[in-house]
Structures are given as C-alpha cells and as structure tokens.
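Minutes, project check-in

Agenda point 3 was the complex the collaborators sent over. CS summarized: two entities, 644 residues total, and the question is how they sit relative to each other. Sequences were read into the notes so everyone works from the same version.
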Amino acid sequence: MNCNHATFLLVSLPSPPPHVLFPKFHFSVPKKTLLTSKLKRNAILRIKASNDDNGQSANWSKWIPKDTFSGDKVFRLISSATASPIGQFVSSPTTFLHSIDPRVKLVWLLVLVVLPARSHIIMRFGLVAYLTLLSIWILPRNAWMDQLGRVYFLSALLFITLGLSSDGVPALVQSRTPPSVMTGLPNLPISLTGYSYVISKLGPLTFTRKGLSVGSTVACLTFTVFQSASLCLTTTTPEQLASALRWFMLPLRYIGVSVSEIVLTLLLSLRFISLVFDEVRNIALGIVSRRVNWKQLTVMETIDIFFNYFRRIFKNIFSHAEQISQAMIARGFKGNVDNHKIYFLSESSFGMADIACLLNLTVVIGASLLSEYYLV
Amino acid sequence: MNLPSLTFTRYPPHHLVSPLYSKLPKATARGKSVDSVAIEARNLNFSFTAKQTKDVTVLRDCSIRIPSGQFWMLLGPNGCGKSTLLKILAGLLIPTSGTVYVNGPKSFVFQNPDHQVVMPTVDSDVAFGLGKVNLADDEVRSRVSQALHAVGLSDYMKRSVQTLSGGQKQRVAIAGALAEACKVLLLDELTTFLDETDQVGVIKAVRNCLDTSEEVTALWVTHRLEELEYADGAIYMEDGKVVMHGDATRIRSFIEDRQSAYINQINS
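CS then shared the predicted structure for the full assembly.
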C-alpha cells in the first residue's frame, strides 16, 4: 500500500470542513507567536491522509475510531468493576469438591496444566468437556456462567487467531521438499483416504491441520489452566491452599528454605489482593464523582490526572501495608515467622473421596498417554 | 521480616495510685467492685518532628487512670490526641516522657477494620493473635468459636473476609481481640465507618464481653455522645490535654454544655 501520511497544523476555520479528522484535541500555543490571539485559541491539530494511487484522500482515516478513548469512560469502567477478584472462595453450597483434601486438588491442578500439551486432540477436547460439566455441577449457576463465559471467550479467540494464523506465512520460503521438476520424481499422489492438509479456506485465510493442532492445544491449555484454577479457588479456602503448599514444601526446609515465611507471605498476599482491588476501584470512583469535564482538558492535563491516579493508588497501598504491619505487631507478631504459629483450622482429612479422586486422576493420565499411541 | 519490638514501661501488676483530676466514678460500676487499676498513664508527653515544621506536640502532660473491669470512653475533637494516647497505651508509640502501665495481655483494635484483619478467612484471622502462644488446635478452635459467638458471627467462620460488610469486619477484628483472652481492650473509633445498626451491634458486643468477664477492661475512643450510655466512665481531651476524667454522665453533660455555649455564641 503506497500511502503518504501528512500532518498539518492549520488554523481553524469558522466551520470545519468535513475532512477534518481525528484526533481533534486542543493544544497550548506558545505565547510569543505570529498568530493572533483569536487564532491561537482556535488552533487545532488536523491529520490528513492521501493515497498516491488515485489521489483521493483519507480512505483509511474513516477506520480510525473517534471518541473511543475518554478518561471518564476509563474511570467509570474501573469504578463499576466488581470488587470480587476472579476465583474467590464460595463457602456455600458445600459440594463434594469442598471436602476434597487440598493436596489432592493441587496434584489435579498440576496434571491438568501438563496434560493438554501432551495428549491427543480428542483428549484435549474431552478434558474441556469434563471441566465444563464439573463446573456446571459444582458451582452455583451465576458463578459457572460468569467463569465459563469468560474462559470460553478467551479460548475461542485464541483458537481462531492461532488456527488461522499458524500457516499464514507463505510456505515458499519454508519448503523443505524440492519441487518435482528438480528431482525428476512424479508428484505426490492425492490421498485415497481423503486426507487434505488444508481443512478449509476462508478467503485469504487458510485453516490447516497445523492450525488446528496449534489452536486446539493453546485454547484447551488456556481453558484447563484457567477453569481448573477457578474451580480449585472457589472450593478451597486460601488457608487450605497455603497448608497444602506448606505440606509439599516441607522437605525444602532441609536445604534452608524458610517455608513458614513463604506461606505467611502467600496468605498476606491473598488478603492484600482484595485491598488493592478496592483501592483501585475507590480512587476511580472518587475521580468520577468529581465530574471532571474531560473535553476541556488538554492531553497533558489528562495524562496528569492518570499519573495522579496511579500515584494515589501506590500511596494508599503503601499506607495500607504500613497499617497492616502495625496491626500485626499489635496482635503479637514480632517479626519472626518461626515464633508465630499460623493455625490452619480446616478439618480436612484424607478419606475415601480423596482416594477416588486420585484413582480418577490415574485413569485420566493413562487415557491421555494411551491416546498418543492409539488415536493417531 | 524484622519488625521493631514493643517497648513500654510496666508498673508492678497491683500497683495502685490515687485517682487523677477527678475521683473515680463509683465504688462499684455495674455491680462490679473497683479494687484495682487496669490502665494508668502519668504525665505523658508526646511530640514528633515533622519535615516542614519544628516539633509538633501531640500530648501534653496527660494522666489517666482506669479501674479494672470497666468500660471507659475517650472523647474529644479531631486532632486532640486520642488515637495517639491509645497507641501509646498499646505500645505502638513510645512517649517522649511520662510513664504508662497497662494490665496485660492487651489488644488493640484499629479504626479501619481493613487494617486490623490480616488473614483472608474469618476463622484464621481470629486465630492469628493466638500464634504468639503455642496452643493445641482444639483449644484454638474453641477460642475462635467462642469469640465469634460473642460478636454474633458464629455462622461466618469460613467466610472470606472480603465478602463481609464494614460492621462484620469490625466484629471480626473485635473477635480477634477477644480470642486472645486479653484483660485490656483498646478500641480506636470502631463505629466510624458503620451504620446505626452496626454501631449498636459492635458496642453491645463489647459491653457483653465486659459483662461476662470481670477481668476485662475496655477503653473506647469515640466522637458519639450517645455511646456514653454504655460506658462506666469517660475521659475528655482537648488540644493534647486531659480536660476531664470521671463519670460518663458528668462528661456527657459537660460536653453538651460546651456545645450549647458554642451554638449560643454563633447565634448571638
């Protein structure tokens, strides 16, 4: 595309012509200039595009979104966001997943992260279906609809993007097989079983078997990672997770790792996440409630507000951290984690349900390994 | 993580001194005998050096005395030094001069419950303060359960702290203090962020705790005069000084007289 892009600084006219384009923001003009004061006030920045092929201007410019970015919209979006971080523990209704030992859940999580990358496509989609059904069965309706909706959207986006783009680069430069005219061999015969590398063509886009493989792997991996983590977090308290991690990390004590400190830091972080969410939301709400007239602000003034917003978030978060450390001192914490016992009051014990879960996991792993050999 | 250790002066456990500024409200308060002191501060001064100003004096020669087993309130206008005095009593600040005695063990509850509650789930937060003493898990469970029952949150043991309202968080903070079986509760403007129902709920929870245990003493910082009806005694501060110290009814009428005098002055 041979386009020339030109930017002109023009003085404004009483009624702007229709080709005046985005962005149309005001800017400050230096005091000492040849422009008259009236013109200075009305000076605007205009962008014009032209195309060398036919001399017509600005055919791309109509695609540029206008008035999509506005400080007000951004802060309103932040302030109206939910206060609940993703994957918050749901204490009721109590399901069988709530009663499973957190260590078993962590092993399941680890396996579900590894399996989609190392199994047949049918197994991958099988895992997705399994997790979907489990989520619908375990979680309340509003929780699973919210979670599955987001994760399916993300996975579908990845599947489409990677599926269509993995063979987007022309194969000419990648070909490892010399053409038949050079080798003197006949062309490869067309598959009798109906095999075709290209699955479908969508205009300039090609959906190939490689695209299917890459797209399905990434999409299924994304889905299983996000959804299994969500399922685990919604049915396990942070303390149960911390105690399970502590159990797995205990052998590291022998090489000098401060397991207690890691666990306490993890717990404090989990508590602190919600405070950070609240702070980000509340300060945005504070800015929205000031009813700033964003249209009158210059770009620098808008940026200044955003900088002040981030500065305020950090200031408040550090203040929270200081207050929490003071509260910990007031509650008897002297700074040495080994001298301050953290009580994990969950009453989980390893039972038949946990054994059944581990057997189930073994079957899934076995099926996945066998799928590599039998479903080729 | 190396945090500074606490430093404060301790009197011998049964050291008795004569009342300051005014005599003790009654020989008995709400049916309890007053025979020992739980909190005492003498000639406390506190100042700090700010970046742009010179020395800022927050407390000037403050002396207070609170008998054991009573519920006292600390009142005064903003910036008069109430919270600073409370933090000194808790050992979170070191006074410039003066002596402090607070019966132990003691607990401090912050104004903002988000600063007090440090664990993600209710029961583990209530148990956090017990980490300094090595108790059996069953004992901890029992204490946590009792403390949550005392503040009316028995059904919230496994709830995420984030899902609680401001009043519920405040009650969790109080439960944390109660679980430690402390003898002195230092409570800093607990009802600031709460609606009327939660205000009454929280103050009744504290009053109930004092009524069921003869050894517990509470000092409650507040701005609300109507809360004085729950108190055995009160202290009024102004400009870093203890202006009045004694019976809650007398303090209330003293403040109301001041308010009416001020309103008359504006209207005249």
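Noted in discussion: The radius of gyration of chain B is 19 Å.
Follow-up: revisit at the next meeting once the mutant set is ready.
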